[in-house]
């Protein structure tokens, strides 16, 4: 055994929570993994072909600027390419945003419950997390969040649809919120699930980004586009912010495989969005069936639903596991269930109806 003297690590890191990923299902039951909001459909043949083609070039570094992808996505979103910053999943880009804006003594504000990576992103950078509880109907309490802004607030995460509750921030309330927040505070709209939104009153991030220089969008190819395993997400940010994010980011952080898969996915977007539509229909079916079984749940605009089960969270998780389905428990708050293929959803619905 080699000698080990504890090195001087940053003491504050000891208190940072670990990110706990969704559990894996029993072997052969991969379609019953409903714990990580993944896309249940396998990659399209054209996407696999693009990855194969790129695999022959992995002895070379990838294009650090993701040039071809930036151009294609800029055209698709109708934003200049210099506003796009890519990273190893949108978690990585979120981390860059915190690193670029907040350090010790600064505050990062977000709703709670929300995406579990936010506290980690903030605290790893030495910033202080400020959490504002969700409203009783599981939506962001934007009035309370605006009240919580101080002269130390540097960055605000608004997760819409919110992970894990599926609720969205509406256009009118976001407008009021942005009027109250100083324009030098970065407001990040985390739109990881934006392709699943059908509520006509939901805030459209791109429209807000165009009007407010401090609004940054965080998006991903992991969910609707089904590329979770390749790790690619991006920010849409003011060019000055984007330039700083690129500086803070790791060079060559996005593989050529991921870049080409994302390009091929954009080319096959219609087909991918048809799949999203199937999941949206399944979401409605799952929601209605759970309500029929007596569960109370908010309307979800994402590819998952949220059951606030309090102290019965673990028991419900176990009831699903007995039928092979893996869902995501959150302490004694509730359970998040990813919407999968119909057969997988049926397993959860059976477990839920029997358990209730
Ligand atoms: N934001 C939210 C709200 C999420 O739920 C997730 C994934 N669980 C992400 C960002 C990160 O996605 P990725 O890093 O795969 O792009």
Question: Any overview of this molecule?
Answer:
InterPro entries: Aminotrans_II_pyridoxalP_BS, Aminotransferase_I/II_large, ArAT, HisP_aminotrans, HistidinolP_aminotransfase, PyrdxlP-dep_Trfase, PyrdxlP-dep_Trfase_major, PyrdxlP-dep_Trfase_small. Aminotransferase that catalyzes the conversion of aromatic amino acids and 2-oxoglutarate into corresponding aromatic oxo acids and L-glutamate. Keywords: Aminotransferase, Pyridoxal phosphate, Transferase. It holds the Pfam family Aminotran_1_2. It is an enzyme of class 2 (transferase). It is a single chain. The chain is of the alpha/beta class and 356 residues long. Helices cover 38% and strands 14% of the residues. It has 12 helices and 10 strands. The strands form 2 sheets. It has a 7-stranded mixed sheet, sandwiched between helices. β4, α6 (171-180) and β5 form a beta-alpha-beta unit. α1 packs antiparallel against α9 (256-267) and α2 packs parallel to α9. The longest helix has 24 residues, at 269-292. The chain is globular and about 55 Å long. The model has no long low-confidence stretch (mean pLDDT 96). The site of 4'-deoxy-4'-aminopyridoxal-5'-phosphate has 13 residues, from α3.
Shape: globular
Largest sheet: spatial strand order: 1-7-6-5-4-2-3
Q: What ligands does this structure carry?
A: 4'-deoxy-4'-aminopyridoxal-5'-phosphate
How many strands, what sense, and barrel or not for the largest sheet?
7 strands, mixed
* SS-derived structural category: alpha/beta
Bin the strand percentage.
Answer: 5-15%
- Rg calc: 20 Å
Portion of residues in helices? Answer: 25-40%
Please state the average pLDDT score. Answer: 96
- Let me know the number of strands: 10
């Amino acid at each position: 055994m080699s000698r080990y003297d504890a090195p001087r690590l940053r003491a504050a890191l000891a208190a940072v929570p670990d990110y706990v990923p969704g559990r894996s299902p029993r072997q052969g039951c991969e379609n019953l993994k409903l714990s990580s909001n993944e896309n249940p459909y396998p990659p399209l043949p054209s996407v696999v072909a693009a990855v194969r083609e790129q695999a022959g070039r992995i002895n070379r570094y990838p294009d650090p600027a993701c040039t071809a992808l930036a151009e294609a996505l800029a055209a698709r979103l109708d934003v200049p390419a210099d506003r796009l910053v890519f990273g190893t999943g949108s978690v990585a880009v979120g981390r860059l945003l915190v690193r670029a804006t907040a350090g010790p003594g600064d505050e990062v504000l977000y709703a709670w419950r929300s995406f579990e990576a936010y506290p980690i992103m903030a605290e790893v950078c030495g910033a202080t997390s400020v959490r504002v509880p969700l409203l009783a109907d599981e939506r962001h309490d934007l009035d309370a969040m605006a009240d919580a802004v101080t002269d130390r607030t540097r960055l605000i995460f608004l997760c819409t649809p919110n992970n894990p509750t599926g609720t969205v921030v509406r256009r009118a309330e976001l407008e009021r919120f942005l009027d109250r927040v100083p324009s030098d505070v970065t407001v990040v709209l985390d739109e990881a699930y934006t392709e699943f939104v059908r509520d006509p009153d939901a805030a459209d991030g791109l429209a807000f980004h165009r009007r407010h220089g401090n609004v940054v969008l965080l998006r991903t190819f992991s969910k609707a586009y089904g590329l979770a395993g390749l790790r690619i997400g991006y920010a849409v940010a003011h060019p000055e912010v984007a330039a700083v994010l690129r500086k803070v980011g790791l060079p060559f952080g996005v593989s050529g495989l991921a870049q080409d898969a994302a390009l091929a996915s954009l080319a096959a977007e219609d087909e991918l969005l048809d799949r999203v539509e199937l999941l949206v229909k399944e979401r409605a079916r799952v929601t209605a069936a759970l309500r029929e079984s007596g569960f109370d749940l908010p309307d979800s605009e994402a590819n998952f639903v949220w059951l606030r089960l309090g102290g019965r969270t673990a028991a419900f998780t176990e009831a699903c596991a007995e039928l092979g389905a893996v869902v995501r428990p959150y302490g004694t708050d509730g359970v998040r269930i990813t919407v999968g293929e119909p057969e997988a959803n049926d397993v959860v619905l059976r477990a839920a109806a029997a358990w209730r």
